Amino acid sequence: MIAEVYIDIPAKPVNRPFDYRIPDNLTELVKPGVRVTVPFGRTRRLGFVTALKEKSEFKQLKGLDSVEDHVPVLTPELIELGGWLANQTLCSTVTAFQAMLPAAMKADYKKLIVIDQIERLLEEDPELAAFLQSAKQPIWSEIIKAHPEWAKRMQRAIKHGLISVQQLVKNQAKAKKAAAVTVEAPRSLLEDELNQLDKRSHRQKEVLEFLLKQPDLQHFHETIQKLVKHGLSREAIMKLAEKGLLKQGYIEQFRDPYNRPVDRTQPLALTEEQAHALEPILTAMQREEHKVFLCHGVTGSGKTEIYLQSIQRVIEQGKQAIVLVPEISLTPQMVSRFKGRFGDHVAVMHSGLSRGEKYDEWRKIREEKVQVVVGARSAVFAPFKKLGLIIIDEEHESSYKQEDMPRYHARDVAIHRAKKHHCPVVLGSATPALESFARAQKNVYTLLSLKERVNHRPLPSVHIIDLREELREGNRSVFSKELLEKIKDRLAKQEQSVLFLNRRGYSTFMMCRSCGAVVKCPHCDISLTYHRAQQLLKCHYCGYEQAVPAACPNCSSDAMRFFGTGTQKVEAELNRLIPEARVIRMDVDTTRKKGSHEKLLRRFGKEEADILLGTQMIAKGLDFPKVTLVGVLAADSLLHLPDFRASEKTFQLLTQVSGRAGRHALPGEVVIQSYAPDHYAVTDAAHHDYGAFYQQEMLLRKRAGYPPFYYLVLISLSHPEPAKAAESAERIASILRRKLSHTSQIYGPVVPSVAKIKDRYRYQCMVKYKREPELMPVLHQIMQHFQDSGKAQLQLTVDLNPVTLM
Ligand SMILES: Nc1ncnc2c1ncn2[C@@H]1O[C@H](COP(=O)(O)OP(=O)(O)OP(=O)(O)O)[C@@H](O)[C@H]1O
Ligand SMILES: [Zn+2]
Ligand SMILES: [Zn+2]
């Protein structure tokens, strides 16, 4: 038999399978979807088997080395999906496969040292020989780490042909195992032993007595750790094992990242609007019909309950469900809503988990130990075999688009998978992406609307404050008089406030007041950010850091000042203005440590603070009953980004943040401070008017020729030499102009707003099109050409439907 294998070659993607002969002893084990180790060139690499066949067109085939998985890690559906993904996003198939699996499954390439001439080695370097012989698996990098001085000696031994180096492909994916015991002997033998033991062996007696009380002795299988917890003696257990009554073995264990009690919840009686929205979803599931629903419901309208009740039905059908949630709203609060309803049927996947934890959650899915996964973007690849439903909450979130290879959008993958499984997709949001709402308008998606909050709770009333006015009246604080009054009022009433600022750090950048120069990163064309805690200026692209300069690097003036407002500065000002208020600050800096995010929110939930001050990460998913005031400190911080989605993002953010207020019995109020108080993104958000915003924004997009009226492709390249970068960019633009139809518009090449990153000069070309049958073939050609022509220095990326143009 012959296996087709996609090989993990990072440098130069080879986008086709290679044929390998399957040795006789492995025929049973090699199946489509397993990972294998194969010889490739002079090395060994990991690969994915995608198909088996009888014959190959090639003659001299190499054989497979070994098989890494007992159970295929890719299902037939995922193998197909990988091919589709590679084609859609112009990446190699292996890259697509890797994106679908937890990181622990990536190969770990190591160099193993093998002794070839032991006698001569013993003579020449007895110390090294002894060491290598005693090591279980002598790995080059590990030895060098422990004994750097041995590098020379090992190199000499290699030169003399005494030892050699072999490429070893290590499988990082390991299940955690715990020592366990089973009962080997029949009940009668245990009883005999119990009677024979003398007094001094009372610890062994305890173990036997415990075992004899077990109802199903034959299938008894328990970890030693658990038995010891029951008060039994480890030594006694071992003694009984030595006697052959018990047998030692292992139990595979799942690390449980959410190992904490959750209160079980019951389905709520639905409101009329909820029932209306749920019904068509259930019908589609019943009929095994693929449909995409757009559930547009105002904040607090109870979308989550609709998700929960449709998942309930999925489980009853014996099928499985995927729930995608944006990374930052994958809070413990969110997770416990699903765990509370479905308990152990839920796996959770997000970036906060360790490698091992992620791998274990993935295995629970693969081994069908759970029916539901709640996770961030990549959970869309959960290897369920009988998908009954895919839900994407906050479907407008830009984090559903992956920003590196493969550049996929989770929405597209979800719809592709759901088609294969004949099941519905539910996209939910209070502020759907313009593209999605437009599709619903055209009946490509089915619109489900929830116009009211649960139990007719009012949406919060919103006040817009004109910051220019405040400044004219001499108020230089980041707080308008009105907002400050309202915060004090909540404090008096013992209610809570949430303050939102779309920035991080103490101040964003450093500028010279004398000449206007901004301190920039020497490797990237971007201003450095001041980090107060370390007193450093840092680059957010490449990590470069430097001390704060005393004088302007441009004109030597000492008038260097920090500009911009960050959460730290606001916190300091709050402490000054309202010293009695207890403030929790949540931003990248205070939530860096694992679990700190959760801890801060728990404290706020327990009312240990009056004010929650934070960045984006507090904009979503939070649901605290005592929050009656939300303040947005600078609504326009997003509005002026060079991005055609700037207004849409501003509208979405303002609506989401406002939605945190008055979600329970107490009515809520929102204060939006802005330098552009008349901008429709601000006023429409204040009026909770998605419809008006949609109309206005669609008009502008149509005029400017942006999505959803046109599709975009962004082709970006970078090169260490500016001239080479420019030349390649010109070539690409001219290929596009020559080969695409004249209905498509080609822009560029242009230098993007960040002109240089990590000492590489950047160029971009953009294609706008409505229908372009030649697009994919031409893009594939361009990728192929620039990869093959040995231009190793050139980096080229193609981004279809980019979420940002920066
Ligand atoms: N049928 C119901 N009866 C009573 N309470 C409900 C019902 N449905 C939802 N709720 C409650 O209403 C609140 C808001 O619901 P939920 O968080 O699901 O809204 P949402 O639409 O997801 O909001 P957002 O878009 O702001 O996240 C929650 O506290 C939830 O428990
Ligand atoms: Zn200067
Ligand atoms: Zn940099």
Automatic annotation (TrEMBL):
<keyword id="KW-0347">Helicase</keyword>
<dbReference type="GO" id="GO:0008270">
    <property type="term" value="F:zinc ion binding"/>
</dbReference>
<feature type="binding site">
    <location>
        <position position="539"/>
    </location>
    <ligand>
        <name>Zn(2+) 2</name>
    </ligand>
</feature>
<dbReference type="Pfam" id="PF18319">
    <property type="entry name" value="Zn_ribbon_PriA"/>
</dbReference>
<dbReference type="GO" id="GO:0005524">
    <property type="term" value="F:ATP binding"/>
</dbReference>
<dbReference type="InterPro" id="IPR027417">
    <property type="entry name" value="P-loop_NTPase"/>
</dbReference>
<dbReference type="GO" id="GO:1990077">
    <property type="term" value="C:primosome complex"/>
</dbReference>
<dbReference type="InterPro" id="IPR041222">
    <property type="entry name" value="PriA_3primeBD"/>
</dbReference>
<keyword id="KW-0479">Metal-binding</keyword>
<dbReference type="InterPro" id="IPR005259">
    <property type="entry name" value="PriA"/>
</dbReference>
<dbReference type="InterPro" id="IPR011545">
    <property type="entry name" value="DEAD/DEAH_box_helicase_dom"/>
</dbReference>
<keyword id="KW-0862">Zinc</keyword>
<dbReference type="GO" id="GO:0003677">
    <property type="term" value="F:DNA binding"/>
</dbReference>
<dbReference type="Pfam" id="PF18074">
    <property type="entry name" value="PriA_C"/>
</dbReference>
<dbReference type="Pfam" id="PF17764">
    <property type="entry name" value="PriA_3primeBD"/>
</dbReference>
<keyword id="KW-0378">Hydrolase</keyword>
<feature type="binding site">
    <location>
        <position position="552"/>
    </location>
    <ligand>
        <name>Zn(2+) 1</name>
    </ligand>
</feature>
<keyword id="KW-0639">Primosome</keyword>
<dbReference type="InterPro" id="IPR014001">
    <property type="entry name" value="Helicase_ATP-bd"/>
</dbReference>
<keyword id="KW-0067">ATP-binding</keyword>
<feature type="binding site">
    <location>
        <position position="515"/>
    </location>
    <ligand>
        <name>Zn(2+) 1</name>
    </ligand>
</feature>
<dbReference type="Pfam" id="PF00271">
    <property type="entry name" value="Helicase_C"/>
</dbReference>
<feature type="binding site">
    <location>
        <position position="555"/>
    </location>
    <ligand>
        <name>Zn(2+) 1</name>
    </ligand>
</feature>
<protein>
    <recommendedName>
        <fullName>Replication restart protein PriA</fullName>
        <ecNumber>5.6.2.4</ecNumber>
    </recommendedName>
</protein>
<feature type="domain" description="Helicase ATP-binding">
    <location>
        <begin position="284"/>
        <end position="450"/>
    </location>
</feature>
<keyword id="KW-0413">Isomerase</keyword>
<dbReference type="GO" id="GO:0006310">
    <property type="term" value="P:DNA recombination"/>
</dbReference>
<feature type="binding site">
    <location>
        <position position="524"/>
    </location>
    <ligand>
        <name>Zn(2+) 2</name>
    </ligand>
</feature>
<feature type="domain" description="Helicase C-terminal">
    <location>
        <begin position="547"/>
        <end position="701"/>
    </location>
</feature>
<dbReference type="InterPro" id="IPR001650">
    <property type="entry name" value="Helicase_C-like"/>
</dbReference>
<feature type="binding site">
    <location>
        <position position="521"/>
    </location>
    <ligand>
        <name>Zn(2+) 2</name>
    </ligand>
</feature>
<dbReference type="GO" id="GO:0016887">
    <property type="term" value="F:ATP hydrolysis activity"/>
</dbReference>
<feature type="binding site">
    <location>
        <position position="512"/>
    </location>
    <ligand>
        <name>Zn(2+) 1</name>
    </ligand>
</feature>
<keyword id="KW-0238">DNA-binding</keyword>
<dbReference type="GO" id="GO:0006302">
    <property type="term" value="P:double-strand break repair"/>
</dbReference>
<dbReference type="GO" id="GO:0006269">
    <property type="term" value="P:DNA replication, synthesis of primer"/>
</dbReference>
<dbReference type="GO" id="GO:0006270">
    <property type="term" value="P:DNA replication initiation"/>
</dbReference>
<comment type="subunit">
    <text>Component of the replication restart primosome.</text>
</comment>
<keyword id="KW-0235">DNA replication</keyword>
<dbReference type="InterPro" id="IPR040498">
    <property type="entry name" value="PriA_CRR"/>
</dbReference>
<comment type="function">
    <text>Initiates the restart of stalled replication forks, which reloads the replicative helicase on sites other than the origin of replication. Recognizes and binds to abandoned replication forks and remodels them to uncover a helicase loading site. Promotes assembly of the primosome at these replication forks.</text>
</comment>
<dbReference type="InterPro" id="IPR041236">
    <property type="entry name" value="PriA_C"/>
</dbReference>
